[in-house]
Amino acid sequence: MTDKIFAPNNQIRPVEAPKPKQTQQVKKPAGQSFKDILAGELKGVKFSAHAQARLEARNIKLTEPQLNRLNTGVEKAASKGARESLVLVDNLALVVSIKNRTVITAVDDKNLKENVFTNIDSAVIM
Questions:
Q1: Domain for residue 39, yes or no?
Q2: Would you say residue 31 lies in a domain?
Q3: CA atoms of 91 and 8, how far apart (whole Å)
Q4: How does pLDDT run across 20-55, given as a tens digit for each residue?
């Protein structure tokens, strides 16, 4: 008897280790960490391009206290299950997508008269 096992060369092959995948590095804005960017995104509501255009066209500037009240109003509407809400802050009317936390449009007191707001399911007065 022999101690050797014979097999054709083409049947036994060494297993190659899988090659590591190359990962793409995402460039971040200079001076801002991911944590800072995420905190800014989660902090409050966003403004759609349409809402930003309305704010600029009507020369509306929201103060920090108004933004805080707007965010509080959005949170209250969300807690009640609202989807699209009219949030009144001082003399401003803002239509907000509660799910997306996005202001859709903004109207100041000069343009508020005889306005009809559609596609909303709630109103919050702050």
A1: no
A2: no
A3: 87
A4: 766 666 555 566 666 555 555 556 899 999 999 999
Alpha carbon 88 to chain centroid, angstroms? 22
- Helix or strand run (H / E) with residue 41: helix 34-43
**Rounded Cα gap, residues 84 and 118, in angstroms:** 10
**What's the CA gap between 74 and 45, in Å, rounded?**
8
In a domain, 21, yes or no: no
Instruction: Tell me if 38 is assigned to some domain.
Output: no
Alpha-carbon separation of residue 5 from 1, 8, 11 (angstroms):
11, 10, 13
Domain tally for the chain? 1
pLDDT for the residue numbered 42: 54
Q: Which domain holds residue 73?
A: 45-125
End-to-end CA distance of the chain: 95
Q: What angle do CA 81, 84, 90 make, to 5 degrees?
A: 105
Report the CATH number that the domain containing residue 65 is assigned in CATH.
3.30.2310
Rounded-to-integer distance, Cα 107 and Cα 113, Å: 10
